[in-house]
Amino acid sequence: MADLASLTKHEGKVPPGLKSNYDVDFVVHYKIPLPATERAEAEAAFIQLIQALADVGFATEVRNGGKSSLLVFTKIASNKLLTSQVYRYRVQDWLYGVRTAAPNQDLTKYFDDEPVTEAERLRLAYLLITKAKNEGGAGITPKVGHWKHVASVFPLHDHSFNRQWIKQWSTKYYLDDADLNQIRDKFGERVAFYFAFLQSYFAFLLFPAVFGLGAWLVLGQFSWFYAVVNSLWSVVFFEHWKTKEVDLAVQWGVRGVSKIQHPRPQFEFEREAQDPVTGEIVKVYSPFKRLARQLLQVPFALACVVVLGGLIVSCFAIEIFITEVYTGPFKQYLTFLPTVLLTIFMPTLSTLLTKLAERLTAIENYETQDAHQASFVQKIFVLNFITSYSPIFLTAFIYVPFGKILVPYLDVFQLTAQKFTTEGKPLPTKDWEMNPDRLTKQVIYFTVTAQIVNFATEVIVPYVKRKVFKAVEDVQTEIAEKKNGEDRGPKDVPEEAEFLSRVRNEAQLDEYDVTVDYREMVIQFGYLSLFSVIWPLTACSFLVNNWIEARSDAMKIAISSQRPIPWRADSIGPWLNALGFLSWLGSVTSAALVFLFNRGGDGHETSESHPNGSPWNISGWALLLSIIFAEHLYLVVQIVVRNVVAKLDNPGLQKEKAERFAMRKKVLEQTFGDQHVQEESSGPGMTGGEKITREALEEEAREASRSVSGTGSPEQMFWLRQRGASETIHIGRGLISEVVASNETKAQKKV
Ligand SMILES: [Ca+2]
């Protein structure tokens, strides 16, 4: 903990860059619906929003958000409320075993020893905004149900930090612990874990990169020696990361936080029942019903295989026909046909299936965010597994060994094409011969070209898109201004104008989703583990790519995303399983590839032993492979069964859970007195002292305004424009009617 304290010490003072954030904790981006009919409802919801925020102890200020929206700035109004919240959550951490020592009862001394970090403050503020009302929060769920007009709730970027961060990283070869700790302090452990994983993986890639280069020069492709070493490396990396993950969690003081679950607001319970052990009222949803819904994952996986697999197989077949059989006119153009088909259909189908995966996960109705996320990640992994690896599987295990039998069936294309030609003449074709370079070329495509394409779609495309949108918008505004002869931009107070335009900009950015980045890296690891025996230089390509990846992901967070909410995490979560699975599958595919493509024994394939598309060459190894596959199939079944069984709570575990719950409740009661009996409920005010009410907060704000009147710092002035929730509501309603009215006049002008 000494480490943690020293890290957080300097956070107590506000660094100069943060000053420009006007002490804002969170910004609520509130969209105003344009139809005048919805005005009353939007206004009512806005009033409820401000009231809900004020009730849990937030000071609020409202400003014009541009593009018919409002920006509601919030900050935890009093230091007392903040420290009480922090203290409460730290006690909870201790009860869950996340902290080894109980927080000191002497609060002043305690917060001197271990000050509140920025990430901690933001996390607690966010929980206070989003937690359900009966759990002491404001119950605001962005985009969901009653709060559908709340587009997002986001913290503001610390721009001076971001600038320094990007500058620092782009001039460094290697990221050390201090760099990761910085990420952790600013963006929370969840994001820090991603970068820690990326860094570990990058460091581990050095070995296969050097070894791969050597193998490529000396051993050639499909060397059994390379396969064995590569499989061993995968296992060592996986096991190393498992230990490293625990080590980091301990260092960061978050070991076990995954046990503290955040309830999902969308969870629907069947009934409320009394817990037999604790007597607590708990929300119940039948685990068997859930299991039945979880079983829908099987048809989902099958649908993915059929839809995506079907598309890939068709494009694959068309490609082989055009490039390897067809010899007629326009061949050079037709070669692009499968690529065009894939680029059109693949993203569309992937998006559709991802939506379906989201839907399925939602109806599985999980109680907690973590369980929901884990289940979603599982489905995403299945989807990406198929799209990423099936083309190579097809070539290696279908095209090469069975080509001689299957390719003649591609005459289907010839017959189809013949119907459309006027003469009905057969298409010019040649006898098929297997293309021995096909497999290698494919692997190079996925491990080099596709990585570059990924980089472009991840960083460059969104950047250009935003620039273009902005330019178009500027032109539109200019035209509108000329036409109407009036200034349509929001009228800001000059000293705030720059700040507000920056916030409006941040409100338009995407939310950062660390899942996307994990997916990219885990899938990449799969190529190395599964297929690098085909092309041993794979790791060299990844080494270069991942150096850039870490920097471009940092830029993605700093420039093109809203600042992430600093969630905690004690591991990379469900991706660990995916990693273990790929590392294991790698040993199977590598062995199969070596058996199939290299039977020379000395690592140098000879032309007569190399498979050439005729299955008659397959003999002994087929038997061996069947045995390996059968044995591994057994392992897969075992893992699936184990997971299913583990999901069904058994009575012993339930009892233990209930007893722990009772213990925590008792300690909390003793610590916080009678008024806060429920463990998770933590309204403002505690330790039996005076209760923090909205009136008291407003009074505090008024008093502060008297003392600074007109001479305060920009921050103080910012928060004093609207004194108390009622003024925020008043101004906000005014802004809403302005927007609705200007929309109406615009509509009339058009008519
Ligand atoms: Ca990335």
TrEMBL record:
Pfam families: Anoctamin, Anoctamin_N. Residues 696-719 are annotated as: Disordered. Residues 23-150 form the Anoctamin alpha-beta plait domain. GO terms for molecular function: chloride channel activity. The keyword Ligase does not apply. It comes from the Eukaryota. Its main location: membrane. It is a multi-pass membrane protein. It is found in: Membrane. Coiled coil: none annotated. Residues 183-659 form the Anoctamin transmembrane domain. Keywords: Membrane, Transmembrane, Transmembrane helix. The chain crosses the membrane at residues 191-218, 224-241, 298-322, 334-353, 381-402, 525-548, 575-598, 618-637. This is Calcium-activated chloride channel-domain-containing protein.
